[in-house]
């Protein structure tokens, strides 16, 4: 049999024996999934999946300023920009890996003038001076006998999909951080308005006490207590202003602007917590971007096992070259100047001291690590949801009792002031009632803010508007 036919027969035999991929069959790591969340309640009812928040979920709060801030953060946040760059890099690496499915062709042209030495070894005739002009192309292509190229491309694709999920996770985290900070700032605005109104009331009470003191109906002790109440309220206004400034600075960074030039005017708006529908825990595996990222990394690690296994077998590479070569005396592109070459090469390890075997063991260990990380992320996600469900429902119950406490404190304060004006009570009774009222009102506002923030955290725990289906490509 001619040599060329023998080479082709050998190649076909190798293709027949090694046409399957080396990577193990992959399935997402198993994690026990509960049948339902146990903390479902009135503010977090069970509902079909199509009722869950998606897309611009923060718009459900109905605050145009928050909507504008979220849009600005999407365009200018530095952390998000870095995540986008990492995402683009992973996509380019995946495209680079897919390029290995096609042969690489390289073109080259050379022109050289030579003068041979009289003492050139093994010199037999020929001119002393000659030219060598060459124009051609060469190619190299590895036949993927053991699935190495396919496994590398699959691993790069899975890593790119993990980067997609990472980007979605960074975006969701940014959206939630911004909404959380904004709601906290508006909560402080409401606290500030309450304290300003309270200070005005205390100022009126101080004036009343001073008039009664001047008329001999009250003691200097009552005046001192009234002044203390007023000064304490003013001090609390300054404290709230300081806390608000910190949140305003944090929002500036989130939207990509210098804190020194960023300003959000005070606005004592009262937003309502969201009633967020919750689906089965199994749906969480498709709704959380961090879970999707961890699963895709496990898939990539599984593909890398195939790469490591394929490295233990011979690699068949087809090489070739063709073009024109001339000594410069005739036209370069003439038919007699053509040349070509085909050079298949089969090369494999004979002895490597166990290096490739160790590579397979390391790749399998890396998959086990990625699988364990995936299970940890899933369990952590279930905990996040249960935490926020419990918080949302318990805070709603607490808010009802706190509202009753505010109503009771206000009635007591009104009665105490009436008794004081009538001379039936001391101003200490008024101070005690005023303090209780202010504490109850501030606690109610704090609860309102915590409920709003809990609703944000629950949306984040449920994955926001993410869906793992967006990673398929």
TrEMBL record:
Mode of membrane association: Lipid-anchor
Keywords linked to the UniProt accession: Lipoprotein, Membrane, Palmitate, Signal, Transmembrane, Transmembrane beta strand
A GO MF label: efflux transmembrane transporter activity
Top-level lineage group: Bacteria
Principal subcellular localization: membrane
Membrane-spanning parts: none
Gene3D superfamilies the record matches: Outer membrane efflux proteins (OEP)
Cross-referenced InterPro entries: MdtP/NodT-like (IPR010131), OMP_efflux (IPR003423)
SUPFAM superfamilies, A to Z: Outer membrane efflux proteins (OEP) (SSF56954)
Signal peptide positions (record): 1-21
A UniProt-annotated Pfam family: OEP
GO terms under cellular component: plasma membrane
PROSITE patterns in alphabetical order: PROKAR_LIPOPROTEIN
Cell location: Cell membrane
Family, per entry: Belongs to the outer membrane factor (OMF) (TC 1.B.17) family.
NCBIfam families per the UniProt record, alphabetical: outer_NodT
Name of this protein: Efflux transporter, outer membrane factor lipoprotein, NodT family
Native source species: Caulobacter vibrioides OR37
């Amino acid at each position: 049999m001619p040599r060329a036919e023998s080479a082709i027969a050998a190649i076909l035999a190798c293709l027949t024996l090694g046409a399957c991929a080396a990577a193990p069959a992959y399935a997402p790591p198993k994690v026990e999934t509960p049948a339902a969340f146990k903390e479902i309640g009135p503010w977090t009812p069970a509902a079909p999946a199509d009722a869950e928040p998606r897309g611009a979920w923060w718009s459900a709060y109905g605050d145009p300023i928050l909507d504008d801030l979220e849009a600005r953060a999407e365009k200018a946040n530095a952390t998000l920009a870095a995540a986008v760059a990492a995402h683009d890099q992973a996509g380019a690496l995946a495209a680079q890996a897919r390029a290995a499915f096609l042969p690489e062709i390289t073109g080259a042209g050379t022109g050289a003038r030579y003068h041979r030495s009289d003492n050139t070894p093994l010199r037999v005739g020929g001119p002393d001076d000659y030219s060598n002009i060459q124009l051609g192309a060469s190619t190299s292509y590895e036949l993927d006998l053991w699935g190495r190229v396919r496994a590398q491309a699959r691993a790069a694709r899975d890593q790119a999909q993990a980067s997609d999920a990472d980007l979605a996770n960074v975006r969701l985290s940014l959206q939630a951080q911004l909404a959380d900070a904004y709601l906290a700032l508006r909560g402080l605005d409401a606290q500030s308005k309450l304290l300003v109104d309270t200070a005005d009331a205390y100022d009126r009470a101080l004036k009343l006490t001073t008039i009664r003191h001047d008329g001999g109906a009250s003691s200097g002790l009552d005046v001192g207590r009234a002044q203390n109440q007023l000064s304490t309220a003013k001090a609390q206004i300054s404290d709230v202003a300081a806390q608000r400034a910190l949140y305003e600075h944090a929002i500036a960074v989130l939207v990509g602007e210098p804190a020194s030039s960023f300003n959000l005017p005070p606005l004592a708006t009262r937003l309502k917590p969201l009633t967020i529908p919750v689906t089965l825990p199994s749906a969480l595996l498709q709704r959380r971007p961090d879970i999707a990222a961890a699963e895709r990394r496990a898939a990539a690690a599984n593909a890398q096992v195939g790469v490591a296994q394929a490295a233990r077998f011979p690699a068949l590479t087809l090489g070739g070259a063709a073009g024109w070569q001339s000594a410069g005396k005739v036209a370069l592109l003439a038919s007699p100047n053509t040349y070509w070459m085909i050079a298949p090469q089969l090369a494999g390890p004979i002895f490597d001291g166990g290096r490739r075997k160790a590579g397979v063991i390391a790749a399998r260990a890396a998959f086990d690590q990625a699988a364990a990380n995936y299970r940890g992320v899933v369990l952590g996600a279930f905990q996040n949801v249960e935490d926020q469900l419990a918080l949302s429902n318990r805070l709603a119950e607490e808010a009802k009792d706190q509202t009753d406490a505010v109503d009771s404190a206000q009635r007591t304060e009104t009665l105490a002031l009436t008794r004081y004006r009538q001379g039936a009570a001391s101003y200490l009774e008024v101070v005690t009632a005023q303090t209780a009222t202010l504490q109850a009102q501030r606690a109610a506002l704090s609860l309102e803010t915590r409920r709003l923030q809990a609703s944000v955290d629950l949306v984040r725990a449920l994955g926001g508007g993410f869906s793992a289906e967006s990673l398929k490509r």
